[in-house]
Amino acid sequence: MRVKLARLAHARSGDKGDGSNVGLIADTPELYEVLRREVTAERVRAHFAAICRGEVERFEVPNLRALNFLLHDSLGGGGTASLATDAQGKTHGQGLLEMEIELPAEWVARLPLSAPGGHRDDPDRR
Q1: 46 sits in which H/E element
Q2: Cα–Cα distance measured from residue 16 to residue 27, given in angstroms and rounded to the nearest whole number
Q3: Burial call 51-72: b when 16+ CB within 10 Å, e when fewer
Q4: Do 53 and 82 touch, CB atoms closer than 8 A?
Q5: Is the dihedral of CA 18, 83, 47, 117 positive or negative?
Q6: How far apart are CA 88 and CA 81, in angstroms?
Q7: What is the pLDDT of residues 21-63, one digit of tens each?
Q8: What is the pTM of this model?
Q9: Contact 42, 123 (CB under 8 A)
Q10: CA quadruple 119, 13, 25, 34: dihedral positive or negative?
């Protein structure tokens, strides 16, 4: 089944000059292994193809159950040099949470529900 990363992880992002820094943090150790396997630099580059003009680098941070991505040349000059609506890349984390990956149905059944914006639903709403 196709599942948005918002069901598996949290994200934070910001600018690094003309590049965006996006951290993806898994909710559990098991989900970290899924993210390590499925969320490659190439797939992230394809997901951000409309805004990322440069390479995408991926760094693993296992002690935090996280992956860190640097999206080079993705901010139109960055900070005060850019005319982009989001010159600091603050929305790129949320944008990555919209990416979908394949998961077995039995995994999906165990995941929490997700509300718009990637925040967890109240369990009473199920």
Answers
A1: helix 41-47
A2: 25
A3: bbeeebebeeeeeebbbbbbbb
A4: no
A5: positive
A6: 11
A7: 899 999 999 999 999 999 999 999 999 898 888 999 999 999 9
A8: 0.77
A9: no
A10: positive
